[in-house]
Amino acid sequence: MRRRMEICKGMRMHGIRTAVVALIACAALASGAGGQSSARIEAEQLFIDAQKALARGDDAAAESLLQRSLTRDGTFTSAIWQLAQIHEKRGNLEKARELIIRGLQREPDASWAREKLGRMEGVLTRRLLGEAESLMGAGAYDRAIPKLSLYMGIKPYDPLPLLRLARCHIALGNLDRAREFL
User: Fold this and answer.
1) Of 39, 56, 94, 121, which has the most beta carbons under 10 Å away?
2) pTM for the full predicted model
3) Residue 120 and residue 100 in contact, taking contact as beta carbons nearer than 8 Å
4) How far from 11 is each of 36, 72, 150, 159, 163, CA to CA, in Å?
5) Rounded to an integer, what is the distance from CA 97 to the centroid of its chain?
6) DSSP code at position 157
7) Residue pLDDT, tens place only, 125-175
8) Cα(128)–Cα(159) distance, rounded to whole angstroms?
9) How many CB atoms lie within 10 A of CB 25?
10) How far is CA 14 from CA 9, 36, 49, 55, 173, in A?
């Protein structure tokens, strides 16, 4: 308990930006004093350290700390959400999407995450389709297929990528596979 109090006291010294996170983290640490595993406590400490790194503007350190936190406790949704934000900020929407889906599996009632996922998937599908069309225009049909396949994983009933996949397979000489998409 004394260690938890020291962590909470230390968090107060890192400014307003981390104040809310500090309060949440301190409450989580205090409420979990009796029943939490050591892995969860370690994960929470790493999460707090990640918040400090973010407050310093060190996204790379924060990402590393959050990944370590999830290694200790893969169910720690606060770390999942935060890591998704870092990936989204960097433009790595595929990874951010995976993390948000992972978080929603743990917390299906997180409506804000569902909304974020919907917006992100809209941006991601437009990007994937644009990249696939550019690759197809350059004759790189084999490299366009994974982009279109990921698009289909997001929007399985959209006919546009089906037609593009068929074109790719025709160009590659896979007529049976092209027929499946048509």
Assistant:
1) 121
2) 0.68
3) yes
4) 21, 21, 41, 52, 54
5) 5
6) T
7) 999 999 999 999 999 999 999 999 999 999 988 999 999 999 999 999 999
8) 15
9) 21
10) 10, 26, 11, 8, 61
